[in-house]
Amino acid sequence: MTAAQTRGERLALAFLGLHPDRKRKLLDRFGTPGDLMAAVRRGRVEGIGSEAAIPAEQCREAIGACGCRVMMLGDPDYPGALAGIEDPPDVLFVVGSVPLEVGVGVVGTRRSTRYGTRIATAYGEAIARAGWPLVSGLARGVDAAAHLGTVAGNGIGVAVLGSGPDITYPREHRPLRDRLVEMGGAAITEYPPGTPPHGWRFPPRNRIISGLSAAVVVVEAAVTGGALVTAARGLEQGRVVFAVPGDIDREASAGCNRLIRDGAVPVFEAADLMEALSLVMGPPRSPPEPVPTPDGESPESDLVLSEGTTVEALGRRLGVAGSALVALIGRLEAHGAIRRDGEWLLPGH
Fold first, then answer.
1. Yes or no: is domain 1-66 CATH 1.10.150?
2. DSSP string of 47-88?
3. pTM, to two decimals
């Protein structure tokens, strides 16, 4: 089999959209991706119909239609840190540009408190201004808040999806995802175009978040959930885990407090995190020049409000809602903006 044919079989296997654990077991049983796909085409794999074996050319057409590209393990541009983990994805579907530099993972609960979203946004902005890529999911809560901080700090963000590259979950975060890509970051996934965001797909993607990172920062987390899975995978991969302490009787802080009890490094304000991360990442680098928005404005201008701008209008303008918008409100207040009758007034107005 030629190299091109082998890549085609690897791509066809990726398009089955299997759980990584099942894919690994099937490869252990059948051998190579080519042998496994041959068995699928003959209907010899339980639970997978022969119609699931999409021809490689059809796979490539689907990739082109959704505007993504493919990275395969062993390619020169495949992230080295991710390639070094025990179970790296064989195929990645990428929208945008995955930075060559190892990043900082910032994760936490979808049901973050105002405290958590404020901290996550501040961390995201500080990491961006230090010149380090930020890696997270794209969920509500801490993920979105951290990426919003990345945008505010003119940084590079990588959103790891639990769906196909053409599907954004939740839908209201599509503008935030697009902005990350515009600013030089990426949205990546091991699942092919058209893959829905089923719940079982999210735990495996957490190994990618930690795999792309030199350190994992858990902002807020209950004792169960994806954030602690990411921390556990990070520890398995030799990553440094940081956690933000919180009230001992607050459910959203219970996971972080347990991580600290078990050896995670506690971090407090953004300056404390920067000092701790410098020991892992090296000295901060100069931040990149502002990336123009489609209308020619700088990204920071997205956060400059005219008098009377409503909270709802601001959310629509940046494509954020819920906890991410709460985090942005906290940032505005820190810069002296005040709210009166649901409208924002900047200092001097």
1. yes
2. T--GGG---HHHHHHHHHHHT-EEEETTSTTS-HHHHTSSS-
3. 0.81
